[in-house]
């Protein structure tokens, strides 16, 4: 090899190393920002739920507090992907962080003397901001992985997605614990101001560190492409809708309220259980690649995981109807539900990135998480309605129906893309 060829080879290697280091740095910055946001998101959910339940709000009123949070998540995922393709993922990520700051400050300014209907409307509006913030941040963070991972590196893509998603959910669980702790130690208002201050610092660091053009489409993306998706993405989005509906039907109102009202658990106990559930779910999600022994997920994996969730979802209400201890059945049954749900979620999160081209990742991930938010919206509303009409048993059977539909839809996923 000539001296010139050696020099060119060295330059190429240095360029490749620099490219990898820059991508890894950007991945760490994005992940760190997402982690910080997730802590506040988890804490805020439990703060709002327990604070207003303690004020005497009914299950349906509690569900309505989260309704705009989920509804505007649908809109945000749809439009946010298009905005990111035009302006870059840095813009949408920073916007999500700042909107969460505004939502936290707005909630802290809530006046306890207001009539209930005014308070509900005000909280719904503030939660709308938080819902927009959450899905802008999530869409930006997960889309960034597809941009930062080299093409044809499916194993790396699966691992990075699992780590980001799993760690996010584990930290959301820590956020639940944090929310219960802060409510007891500092009260509602001061807790919100503290979290807003921390997020301002995270926003400033992300604004400095991230490249301006990250995730921007190379070609102009038409607005009609928001809905022009492949069959694989459409089917996966439909399965995702019912999968997350199955979780939130029991998760949002039913189980937390039942634990406190029927079993007499304290705020701290409810917060601890919800935190441990989400932390365990997140840890399992992050190690899913190891559980699958390095095999990348396929339609068969998604359908099998969905079928397992159906069996677990049916076993919990059946056990209660046979007279088993509610505390034992719910704690144990929902722990198993979390294990199987984590596998389902990790598989779906990989498949959406595997099914999409890198240049359209923000659009497709936004569409996919629009379905995710739709499932949460339906699950949130049904959680309050079913609990008020049929109690916890109604919520659990509702979760079973949604899990069954999700598993059946997964069977329609393509074998190869």
Rg from Cα: 22 Å
Compute the number of strand runs: 0
Please tell me what the overall shape is: globular
State the helical fraction. over 70%
**Strand share of the residues?**
under 5%
- CATH topology name, in short, is Growth Hormone, Chain: A
| CATH architectural grouping | Up-down Bundle
> Helix/strand/pairing class, anyone?
mainly alpha
List low-pLDDT spans: 8-12, 14-20
Kindly, what is the distance between the CA atoms of the first and last residues, rounded to a whole number of angstroms? 42 Å
Keyword list:
single chain, 417 residues, mainly alpha, Growth Hormone, Chain: A, 14 helices, 82% helix
Q: Explain this structure to me?
A:
With 417 residues, the chain is mostly helical. The chain has one domain (17-210, 231-410): MFS general substrate transporter like domains (Growth Hormone, Chain: A, Up-down Bundle). The protein is 82% helix and 0% strand. The protein has 14 helices and no strands. Helix 4 (89-108) runs antiparallel to helix 7, helix 6 runs antiparallel to helix 10 and helix 12 packs across helix 14. The longest helix is centred in the N-terminal third of the chain and has 52 residues, at 3-54. It is globular. The model is unreliable at 8-12 and 14-20 (pLDDT under 50).
